[in-house]
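User: Okay, second chain of the day. Same drill as before: sequence in, structure tokens out.
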Amino acid sequence: MEKSLSVGIKRGFAIQKLKKNKEPKVKEDQSGYYIYTVNEGVKVYFEDFYAFLEEVEKRCSSELRSLKEKVEDCDLRCEETRAYYCARKIIVEVILKNVYGYYGDDSSFAVIMTPWCFGTVILEKVENYKERLSRGKLPDVNLPEYPYLVLRYIDEIYKKTLLELLELPPEAFSIKWQYTELLKRFSKVFSDVYANLADIFELVTEYN
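Assistant: Same drill. Structure tokens below.
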């Protein structure tokens, strides 16, 4: 039976699809199908990656239900408490949104990564959310009338909350700069390739 998340999203690269796939990057050994990841060059088994996302979804779904109840039951006069719950709820929802996206994506093998790399992706997403919220460019149904308090709590708790819900060690986020630098290198390579192709196209055009 094909595995899926609790919301019905199926694995982007299920076993049946991997069996039919002719991509040389995908290999198989006694432990299953694996790939050397695009961002890290690390061996990751497809089963391990999807199992990780399934466990994260379980924790986050349970946490989200609990937070929704707490927000509803919280006295409106307890602004600090409500702001904390809202901040944590936003972080949980960012995680879930990306779990759903990465789990069902079958467009590129770049979605397969280690838990540490996935953690840095979510960290970046939350930081982007935080920045947009601070500039007033992010209307959100989660936000009460006092968004500053929510922003303050997101800033205070997001790293600890991510480590907790993803079950990662603190050092997982210390390598964020490595991924950022790697992506910059990829961007430079692609820019150079594009420039070279443009030069070749220009020469061919002139020759013709």
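The chain has one domain: 15-207.

User: Thanks, on to the next one.
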